[in-house]
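3.2 Worked example (two chains)
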Amino acid sequence: MREGVSRVLMAGDVVEALARGQQSAHPNCSSSWRTFTVGGHNLTDCEAYRQGLTPTHYTCNTTDRTRTDDVILAECRSACSADAACSVMHWQGLKANNFSEDAIGQCFLLHQACFTASKYDTELAPSFCMQTEMCSRAPEPANAPVYTAISVALSLGGSVRRAVGSVRKYERNPILVQDRPWETRLDNGYPNVVPPSGGDPNQAGPTSWQLWYGDCISAPTPGAPGCEKQVLLYANSTDGLAWHKPTLGLYDIGPPHHKENNVVLYGGGLGVTYDAHDPDSSQHRYVGLGRACWASGTCPLDAVRTSSVGVASDSDADLAVSADGLIWHGVATLAWPSPQRYDCHNQVFWDEPLQRYVAVTRDGFSGPVGRTIGITTSPTGALGFDTTAAPLEALYGDEQRQLYSQITFRWHNTFLGIVMVYEAQSGEGRVRCRLAWSNAPESTEWRWVDAEGEAGGLAGAEFVPLGAAGSFDSHICFAAARPIPHAAEERIYCSRPRRLERVPTHTLAQPPRSRPPPCNHRVTTV
C-alpha cells in the first residue's frame, strides 16, 4: 500500500499493531525502555539477582523470537530498536558475569505480543537473570493519515497512533426510565446487558435481550427517601431497545407490592455475564460477582445488616452461577483482603484464549489516588479465585479523577477497558467513560488509549461523551458489558443518571426525569 493512500482497516489490523507495541515501520525507539508484568508476574529480575536474591523466572509464551549474537544489554536494546517487527526485547545476564548488564549475555527479539507467561524453573535457572522490556517508538509525523476502527485509530504513513473513535447516540434515548414505585434511585444502575444467544449466533442461549440493573431502595417502605438497601432488577426485550419489566414473583419488598415486582435478589454493584463455555453444565449459563444474597435471594429487607452504602455485609456468596439469570446458586465467598472493595460495578467473565476467568473489582477507596481498578484471573480453568491477596491494582488515577469501575473485554488480540472516571472533587459528581487497553487483563501495563494531554489520559477524550448541560445524560456514564455486535453496528449500553448519589428520591407520581438510565449508544462498524 502506498503511503498517504486512505483505506478502512479491519479492527484486527488495528489490534495487532497495538498488541505488538510497535509503530509500523518506524525503526527508532526513544530512550524510554520499560519493564512490564504479565498475569501479575514480573518478567524482569536481574536487579534482584545482583542483590543475591533468586526469584522465580517468568518468560513470555511465544515461539516467534530470534536470538542474536551474545551482546551487552544496551546492544540488545539497539537490536530490537533496529528491527521494525520487534515488540519485546529479552536479555539474559549470566551469573558468571555477576549478572552485569555491561557484560555479554544472551539476546532475544520477540516478534509477537506477550499475552501470557510461564514459570521457568529448570536446573539452569539460577545461572542467569532475565531482563524483558518494551520500547517506546518515536512519535509519528504530524501529517500522517489516520484510519479508524471502532474506537482506535491507526496511521500507516510510517507510524501508528492510538486515538479514541466517535460514537453516535441513539436518537430515541433514553430507552429505559425509572417508572416503578420501587425504582426510587437508579443513580448507581450498574447495568449488565446480554444479547440473544449470549452474543454468539452459533451458540444456544437466551432468545431475548436481557438486562440486570441496580436499584437503591429503603426498608421497610420501598419508595421512601434513602438508600438502605441495594437490589438487582431485571428487564427483557425483543430488540434491545424497547424494554419490558416482568413481574418475577421472587422478592418480597413489603406492602403494597410484595412480590409483584422485577427484583431478582438483594445486593449491590453486581456483575452478570453469560457464560456457556462449559456445555455440560446446565446450571452454569450465567455468572455473577458481587456481595449479595445470591443463594437465598429473598432475605427480608429488614433482617440483613448492611454497610453505610447499602451493600450486604453478611451476604451468602460473592460468586454465583445460574441457569436462567433469575434463580442463583452461590459458588464461593470471596473475602479478598484490603484494599479490595465490592462497592462498585464488579465483573467476571470467561476468556477463551487464556482459558481462565477474569474478575474486575475495586481496589481502595481513599488515599492519594482514591478508588482504583483491581483485576485478577482464576488460577485454573475452574470458576474460582485466589483470595490470599487482593486483586492486582491494574490502573489508578489521582485524587481528583478516581477510577470508579472498569468494564473489561477482549478485543481480538488485546484487552480494552471502558473506565468510569469519577471527578471526585468537582462538586458536580460527574463520571466519564474513557478507554484503556492492555495486552493482558491482570497486568500493571494498562494504558489510556488517548494518553496525551492533561493528566496523561485521565482527562483525555471520552469514549462515550456526556451530554450537553441540562440533558438527561449530562453527568454520568456507567458502561454495561462489552460492545455488542448487532446487524451493521456495535451497541454500547450504559446507565446515564444525572447525579451520582445524594439525589432527592421521587415517588411514581413524580418520576425523576433527571435520572432515567440506562441509555444506548451505537458505534458503526468498519
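3.2.1 Second chain
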Amino acid sequence: MRARRALAALLLFACVLALVAGPALSAAASPYGWDGGHDALGWSEPSGTAFFAEGTTRNGFEEYLLLRNPGADDAIVTINYLFPSAKAQVQEIDIKPWSASAICVNDVVGPGKDVSVSIAATPGIICERQIYFNYKCVWTGGSAARGVDSPRRSWFFAEGTTRPGFQEWLCLQNPLSHDVEASLTYMLGTGETREAKVALKANSRSTVDVNAAVGAGQDVSTKVTAPEGIVAERPMYFDYKNTWRGGHTATGAADLSTDWYFAEGTSRNGFEEWLCIMNPGADTTAHVEYLLNGGAPVAKDYALKAHSRTTVSVNEAVGPEKDVSIDVKADAEVMCERPMYFYYHNAWEGGHDVVGATEGSPVWYFPTASSGPGFESWLCVANPGDTENKVLFEVYGDGGDYNSQEVTMPARSRATFDVNAVSANVRNPWLKVTGTHDIVAERPVYFSYSPKIDPEPYTIATWGGIEIKSPIKYSECLGPQFHEAANEGNNCPAMQPVGTCLLNDNASHAAPGMSFSTGNDPYYFVEETRNRGTYSTTACDVQAKAGTTTYAPVSGVVVVAEPYMLYGAYPDLRVRIRIDGHPDYQMAMLHMSQLLVSVGQRVEAGKTPIGVVRDLVPYFNSGPNPYTRNDGNHTHIQINYKPEQATGLGFPSSPTDVND
C-alpha cells in the first residue's frame, strides 16, 4: 500500500498538478482522459483548521488533498477521515517550511468509501480538495473546493436543480463527538418551501439525494441548520442541456450578506454563465454590477421574491465575448452562487461553481497552480473598489524558483493571468496574489485528466444467477448500451441490466419480468429497436475508445478466439467463453483489433484481459453515437446458447455467423 500511495502521489505531482517533481514512472496509458474544469476561491490567510464534507473513493472517483505550508516553520498536520458508519481514520503528517503534501485519499482509506475530511494544522496551512471522476460511466469532470475553516450551525446554497439531466446531492459532515439532527429547508423556484430532518451520527458523513427529496423538474435553493456546528457541501452531476456533461461542487455559505463578489466569469463562445440568488426573507432587490476587462461596468437590478431562488443569465446581461467579474449589492441579506457550463476550446466540456466572497482581501493564496500537461489554469482577479489597484501575481516553487507578473487595474474592473505561462519554469508552483487595496481572486482550471487508480471490477448485468462484469474498466467506460442481439439461431437470452437506465428507447421489446430499476450504478441506455425479433437486452455494446483493453465479462474457458467478417464485409476478431456453471452457454465478445487470450485458457470475470477495442469508425463512419455521443467504438457482448459445444474446444464456425 505504501508503494502504491507513493506512485499515485508522484504521478499526481509531476504529471497533473505540478506540485512535486518526480521521476518518470511506467504505467499502462489510458486512451481515455476525463475532461472538465473546476474553480476555487483562494484563501485570504493560512488556517489552523479546514473541513470538507464531500469526498468519495467509489469506482470512477479519484480524490486528492493538496496541502501547502506557506510559512517558515514546520507544520504538524492531523487529518481525520469520517465515514457514514465506520470508525474515523486518523493520519498525521509533517510539512516542511514552504513545502507541500499531496495525499491520494483513495490510497489512504481504500476503495468504495464515502468520506468527509477535517484537518488541524499547527501553524496554519492552505489546502484544497480536488476530485476527478467518471460519474456512473457516462459523465466525466472534476471539482475543487478550498474547504471551510470551521463547522457552523447554518449553511446556505443558492444553486441547485433536479431538472432533466441533473443529479444533486447534499453531503453533511458531523465532526462532533455526539449525534445531532440537521434541518433542511428547500426553497423552490415556485416560491414553495419544503422541510426535512436528517439524523447525523457522531464523527460521520451523511448524504442526501436532493432529487428524491424534492422531486424532478425543480430549481431549488437549500438552507441547512443544526443546533451545533456541522459542515455542508453540495455536489451536482449533469448533462447540461443534453450537450455538456460534468459535475461541480460548492461548500455552502455560513452567513447571508448584502454583498457578494465573484472574480471569474465569461460569456465567450462555448460558455454559459449564471448568477443564482437565494432570498430567504421578504421581497427585496439585488443591484448587480458586471465588471469588465475594459469598459464601464454594466449595471442591472433584479427583483427577488420572498423565500425563493432567482436565476440570472450573465450572457444575456453583458452580451457575448466578455470576461466579467460580478459585484452584488442587495437591499436585504441574500446568498449568491455562480455556476458556469462550458465547452472549453471546443475540446473539454463540463462546468464549475463557486460561492461568492462576501468581502475582499489584499492577499489571496492558492496551494497549487494546477498547471502542467493536460491542464490550463487561469487566475481571475476582481477589483471591486472605486480606486486604481496595483496587483502583484507571484508564483513560488521549490529551490527558490520564482516568477511574477504585475498589472495596474482600473477601478471596478477584472483582470486575468495565464497561470501556465507564469508558472512554466517554476517547480512545484503555488500562487499568491496581492493588491494595494482589497481584491477577490479565483483560479479556474480546464483539463483532460489521466486516471491513476486501478478501479474495481463492476457488474453491468445479471443472468442465470451470475454477475456479468463490464468488459471495460470503470475509468475507461463511456457507457453500456443494451440492444437486440441478431437473430441467427443463437437463442440469446436477455440479460438483466444493473444500474440506472438513463433512456429506454425499446420498452416494448423488454423480456417478461425485466426490470429497469435494479441498482443505481452505472448509468446505461437501451437502444431503439433494430427489428431483429429478439429482446431489448440480449446484447450490450460497452462504449470505449479504440485501443482500450477489454476484460472477461464472465469466468470460464475460452472455446473460440478467431478472426471473422463482421456483416460479411469487415475484418474483426471475436472470443467466446464457456460460462462456468452454464456449459451450454457461451459469452461472445466482438470488435477487437488484437486478442490477448487463446483457446483453452481459463479467464476470470472482470480481471482477465481478452483483447483490444477495435476502431470501427473506418468501417461505418456514421457519426457520434446518439446515446453516449462518443465515436461509437465499443466491445459487444451477448450470451449464445450452444448445447452442442458444452464440451470440447476450438469449434469451427462460419466466418460471418455473428453480427453486431
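3.3 Remarks
The CA atoms of residues 8 and 452 lie 7 Å apart.
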